[in-house]
Design a protein that fits this description.
The structure is a homodimer of 289-residue chains. Chain A has helices spanning 7-25, 34-44, 51-62, 67-88, 105-109, 111-128, 133-143, 148-158, 165-190, 195-222, 225-228, 234-237, 243-247, 249-267, 275-286, and strands spanning 98-99, 102-103. Chain A is mainly alpha-helical and 289 residues long. The first copy, chain A, is globular. At the A-B interface, helix 2, helix 6, helix 7 and helix 8 of A face helix 2, helix 6, helix 7 and helix 8 of B.
């Protein structure tokens, strides 16, 4: 590309579009019972970077589809992501008081409502994906007991024990990777991807998802609460097996870099249409929070 | 009908078929991570009467459909019901230690796994309903923040305050009624119901759902732990507004009887094909646990 792709502007514009769509698609805060809709919206609009729904729209674009076709799916993915954070932050799970610099859902609304707000966002995601049964199947598979939820179970079970590198990779492929890959696949499907395109973008997603978690682990060791907007050092506190603990910080960074290089290779045949996906891959590697 | 319908045998045969289907459709207890699949199956096979999935199959039959067509939907409905019980029993919700005479999910597997087992069953329900987008929409609407979850929120908010009869009815129409009506509608849809048939069965379901909750409240006052297989008197302990509290036991029973009479009127045009639905309506009124 002669002109460098402006990712910051792309994330801003696309993020704003996603926020508008979410605001339109999720019941208003005044819809009875107001408590649940306020709680859902509190976490949904808590300043997330919308990386997953942006990936959905960018994947749709990469195969030549119109982003609008993928917007309900982008919102569905963000609902799943937000539900998983709300439940993950509960005292019986990771027990986090802060998320993105703000008190977590259960600190504001109480644990009962937080459980229900997560349940409601999960349910809403399937209403949003109900444009095609293929979307519903993809989302259920990524979010279910052999995807995202498997990762959360493995994460709970890896606490206070020495997990191997293979186990840590398996956990993160489920916990982070499954939804990131599904976000991309759903966008590609909505854009009319060929089987070969879908295969390449699936591998791009798998690379990205694992790299994301490696960098997350690295930042938990090297960053500060102020930069991250959430507690750091939690992994060490919970005696979790992480990539830096198993490989060291430098080798972890190197592994992430190799994954991102492979992700770029998967995008080659898409040409300039994949510029957003390429820029996001680089951003994953270099992000500071 | 000259020959009385044998409901006990129908429930036994149909219940056994549902158990077989659930066992086939839900991941085996050995599927990794085994913990989550054990926890899902623990509550799913805890001796529930399968009333909701039986209604799905019976509604399919009432409109002349083959029950097998509705089986995945019957299983989806039971997954939603079981997830809602697991989350409802959590310490941050109703805080129940026993359910159907057995320790609740979180007492056996811990709160973290119980939250995730509920999440996984909710997700699995949508995988099972993914035969048609109409099914997914119906299920999401019944289970979502303006259906089942709305009822649970209203239930939490009605604790320790004097709710009116109208509020209690609204709560139960959501908390119990929405899923019972959806169970019936899904079966009818899978059986190829006409719009008029669907309308009548929807009203049958609304009647049944409210009557079910009235009788539940009555039994919480008049029954014992031994008969119910769960703690009784919980409503009084939690200072909940219930039908017996607002209307007295006799008037509550009378209201339930009137609803069941209306339910029977909705079934008239279906003839003998609706014999199971008619018998279930009577069973709702006369059950002791």
């Amino acid at each position: 590309m002669t002109q460098p792709f402006n990712l910051e502007r792309y994330l801003q514009t696309t993020g704003a579009r996603i926020n508008t769509a979410l605001d339109r698609l999720i019941p208003a805060a005044t819809t009875p019972p107001a408590t649940i809709h306020k709680a859902m919206r509190y976490s949904l609009f808590a300043g997330g970077k919308r990386i997953r729904p942006v990936l959905t729209l960018a994947a749709c674009e990469a195969v030549g589809g119109k982003p609008a076709a993928a917007m309900p799916l982008a919102c569905a993915v963000e609902c799943i992501h937000t539900y998983s954070l709300i439940h993950d932050d509960l005292p019986c799970m990771d027990d986090d008081d802060f998320r993105r610099g703000q008190p977590t859902n259960h600190k504001v609304f109480g644990e009962g409502i937080a459980v229900l707000a997560g349940d409601a966002l999960l349910t809403e995601a399937f209403a949003l994906a109900a444009g095609d049964v293929r979307y519903v199947k993809e989302l259920a598979s990524a979010a279910g007991s052999r995807g995202l939820i498997a990762g959360q179970v493995q994460d709970l079970e890896n606490e206070n024990r020495a997990a191997t590198l293979q186990e840590v990779i398996a956990t993160h492929r489920n916990k982070t990777g499954a939804l990131i890959t599904a976000a991309i696949r759903l966008g590609a499907m909505a854009g009319g991807a060929t089987p070969a395109q879908l295969r390449r973008l699936t591998r791009y997603g798998d690379d990205l998802g694992l790299a994301f978690q490696i960098i997350d682990d690295v930042l938990d060791v090297t960053s500060t609460k102020e930069v991250m907007g959430k507690s750091v050092g939690a992994d060490a506190k919970n005696q979790k097996s992480t990539f830096p603990k198993l490989l060291g910080v430098e080798k972890s960074r190197q592994m992430a870099a190799e994954l991102i290089a492979d992700a770029h290779r998967q995008l080659k045949s898409f040409g300039t249409r994949a510029a957003p996906l390429a820029a996001i891959a680089d951003f994953f590697l270099t992000r500071q929070h």
